[in-house]
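Possible regression after last week's pipeline update?

I re-ran a chain I had predicted before the update to compare outputs. Posting the input and the new output here so someone can diff against the archived version. Not blocking, just want to make sure nothing changed silently.
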Amino acid sequence: MTKKRGRVTLPSERNFLEETKELMEKWGADAIRDSDGTKLDDDIKDLDAKIYTTYFVARNHNDFIREHMEECQQLFVISDRVTSKGTSLTIDFMNGFYSEQLVPDYNHDPKEWWQVYNRTTGELLATNEWDVDQENHQVIIHKTLPFNVYTVSFLVYKIWDPTQMYNHTTNNWGDSVEHDIPFNVRMPHSNKFMSEYLKQWLIDNPKTDVVRFTTLFYHFTLFFNDLGKEKFVDWFGYGASVSPELILDFEEEYGYRLTAEDFVDEGYYNSSFRIPSQSYLDYVEFLQKYVSKEAKKLVDLVHESGKEAMMFLGDNWIGTEPYGEYFKNIGMDGVVGSVDGGATMRMIADIPHLKYTEGRFLPYFFPDTFYEGNNPVDELIENWVKVRRAMMRNPVDRIGYGGYMSLAYKFPDFIEYVGVITDQFREIYDIVKGTKAHTGLKVAILNSWGKLRTWQTHMVAHALPYKQIYSYIGILEVLSGASVDVEFISFDDVIQNGVATDIDVIINAGDAYTAFSGGDVWKNPELIGKIRQFVYEGGGFVGVGEPSAVEHHGAFFQLSDVLGVDKELSFSLSTDKYFHTPVAEHFITADLGSIDEIKLGEVIDDVYALSEETEIIEYSDGEVHLAANTYGQGRSVYISGLPYSFENTRLLIRSLYYVANKEKEMFTWYSSNPKVEVNAYPEKGKYAIVNNTNELQHTIIYDGEQKEHSIQLEAGEIRWEEI
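New output (post-update):
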């Protein structure tokens, strides 16, 4: 059998020609790329493959920026909260920050741009009440209230790019590799340089076929503490794009001036979990417009040279939100991003306005994974199986890897298994891409961000979950590979337009007062009324964690009447609560074994049933963790949390069909074993039975006519059948 070739990108490096040829054959690679810290020799660039070359727009040009250090990138940061013990106070505002990455900006007048707050009273101090000691990096507050807490919000220059810093420290580059200094393309010298340098670079790199922008101008918010460890990281954070010049441009367009507080946000830095203020949303829109306009100039230059432009969805990606209104104006040919599971696979694969998408698979070929005694095959298989679920719904157009290929090459089992993956990927792509998979439901995820953050709820940097989101991130992972259509809608969408008629189920999930649960927006009677009407007239609602939660007019869950449950805040302990008997059986848990084995993540304490009409499915420790309720012609389900697992995948799917009143339809292209899934492609006349484990599995599948078939699948097997 001749090995197929194509749709795979291979990382390579200097002095690696023969090995590159071998790996191109093993993996069927048709493209070769460099990585941060590697370069390709000319003989590698002459191979029969597309050549991707990493290109840094706003970093990796220290010869330029050292002549214009006033044009370094900037951000607002906030000092420690310091308690005044008397009537005056000195704050060492750089305490806790990494001086090799951040330095105070004294070029722009601190009295105009910095802010000092009494955080006990919430009062902004007048500029004549404090002074700056630039030599010692201190703010002296002349008159304070004893035992009140004060902070300084101040402007800094960023003199070490966070990604290069991470790569630098992870790989122990030491003094042999210079620190990359990022520069701000809004500034005149930097703006001129970025275009002129690219023009010459395109001439000097005739063998480059694809310019891989990594990424463009502004890095997501990431800065380090005085130990060189991450102090704050938000993959969605816009804080590192700020400068006084941009703020003045913003004021001219929007009619008001942003302040330091708009960015430091009391120390929360507008993390994606915060309900966004209108000023922050305005700034996000402003920056997207600015970045798309400037990025288009670079993409046009690439196209004029006969090359393709690709963007890495990471690092300096802020302002290029791929589901935003302005991304299409940039004209990118492709987007590549790191894939750690089904949700990130769909986040990339579903991006519109592109010629192709590419997933950079894990593990990354760095020494923190590829070292003697470790087996990277385990991580490879775990990642692939999760990603493959989503591919069965909508695959990316290409896959690849990154890092030091010479490290991975030392692990022959790893190299062989990647060859298995690349073959399987091409088979999936040839059948699945461009065809409509069987879909039983349409589900809408409701939060503050809506479409802008499609497939990005509860997501954080480096794919590392916070403890508090362990119970929610599984929802996206489940849906990424499920036989449902998924849409992301915002509270404003519902308030302004109601619920679209093609939506079967709405999911609202998150902790109270976060952007995902919604907070104060649930006090809006327009929102509440439209959601209630949607369910009452036959729609479905699934609430996870603290849905619709805000204490208001005697209830905490504002949709408690729809959900049939509410949460005790200790305000109504004197009101007896009699309903705590679970139902003997329920459709939602019918094939999940013992209810005691279901793991619902971080428990939401003190949720109770409102009446005997509430169907309690799981009750323990004096509280409800899983319940269903009928509301008019519609239904709802409450789940305390949903970390990703095979059992919870089944639990959510059954919940969705139940609240949509479509229980019978669930048994179309269905597997009795939660570890096996069935995906059907009627237009292609095929269906796939997928073993999502690395073990032998037995199951009964239900075909398109709901007829039963008993089958056995080998570890990791995909079995394709004709309809």
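Follow-up from reviewer: compared with the archived run. The longest strand covers residues 149-158. Marking as no regression found.
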